[in-house]
Amino acid sequence: MDAEPQTRRAHLPAVCLFGPTGTGKTELAMRLAEALPVEIISVDSALVYRRMDVGTAKPTPSQRGAVPHHLIDIRDPWEGYSAGEFRQDALRLIATIRARGRLPLLVGGTLLYFRALQRGLAAMPAADPAVRAQIASEAQQAGWTAMHEQLAEVDPFAAGRIAPGDRQRIERALEVYRLTGQPISALQAEAEAAEGGRFLRIALWPSERAALYERLDRRLQRMLREGFIEEVRVLHALPQMSADRPAIRAVGYRQLWQYLDGDCDLAEAERRAAVATRRLAKRQLTWMRAEESDLRVSVPDTGAPERIVRFLEASGVSRRALRCNMMGAPSECREHGV
Questions:
Q1: Has residue 158 got a pLDDT over 80?
Q2: Strands 69-70 and 38-43
Q3: Where are the domains of the chain?
Q4: For 77, which of 156, 247, 251, 265 could close a Cys bridge (C-beta 3.0–4.6 Å)?
Q5: What is the dihedral of CA 259, 275, 215, 64, to 10 degrees?
Q6: What's 3-121+192-326's CATH class?
Q7: CATH says 129-189 is which class?
Q8: Would you say residue 333 has pLDDT above 60?
Q9: What average pLDDT does the segment 76-80 reach?
Q10: Tens digits of per-residue pLDDT, 169-202?
Q11: Tell me: the pLDDT tens digits for 26-48?
């Protein structure tokens, strides 16, 4: 294959569909697949894990059979998966999907993954147990609010983006500063640009936050009826699993794990899970306000699929343009810019 069609193929955009949990991203992606030949790349830090289906609202076997899905069920629940690994996997998949003349559609709510893909990753120091232990000791004495104030003194930009109660991110930002002498925000700004070409970013915004919270509560109750507790019980029984495994950080799993550990009764675990889910949605919305988007769509909206398709076509993405891309952009297709 000559270099010119490959170059044109690389200019075909990848579409990013992101939004907070519970906004119907999977269903909307399936509707878009009815209009365009897409392959879906999951951008979800929980969907990578096998044996975690109910509590992650994983796409059903029929959905995955109808439209190719990627980066689902690629890790066992006791294994880790980083933003850097996601970036490498996603860039590889974007290239292979484009080579098939299809549209890469990245769908999910793990905005750290979207950011890593589009902006690259800074070279960060590895975790240092001794430094973390010192930070934890200081926090036990002074509290995490005081640690956040300490962070604001050395890295006001990072402190402005990290909530005073976000222990994990405060700890990491202070750890990086103590290890390198540089603010984590400065290192992140040095990240290399992504290699994935042009991205079209479509943000899903809930029209009413209260209505989103109600949907999240109903979804949690449906998951519980469909076997969520039994799913966590199976994980809890695995000898490789423990409460500190990355998979158990997923909303709902941590709270039900606490119930199975005897830390609370089931009603309290359900209450904690509902609160944690709402907090996740709130954090995702906060992240989204800091991100740029090419199209903002209010949901729920029955007309959203048609609106998105019109936007993609106006941006040079159509069935004909994709077909021409696969054929190496013959002369009769150059009007599409591929």
A1: yes
A2: parallel
A3: 3-121+192-326, 129-189
A4: 247
A5: -60
A6: alpha beta
A7: mainly alpha
A8: no
A9: 95
A10: 899 999 999 998 989 888 766 654 446 678 999 9
A11: 999 999 999 999 999 999 999 99
Which residue reads 């021409």 in tokens? 324
Which residue in this structure is represented by tokens 């904690």?
272
> Which tens digits make up the pLDDT trace of 96-114?
999 998 999 999 999 999 9
Amino acid present at 308: I
Which is nearest to 211 in space by CA: 269, 278, 153, 284?
Answer: 278
pLDDT of 8 strictly over 60: no
Q: What is the pLDDT of residue 331?
A: 44
- On whether the CB atoms of residues 37 and 103 are closer than 8 A, the answer is yes
pLDDT number for residue 168? 87
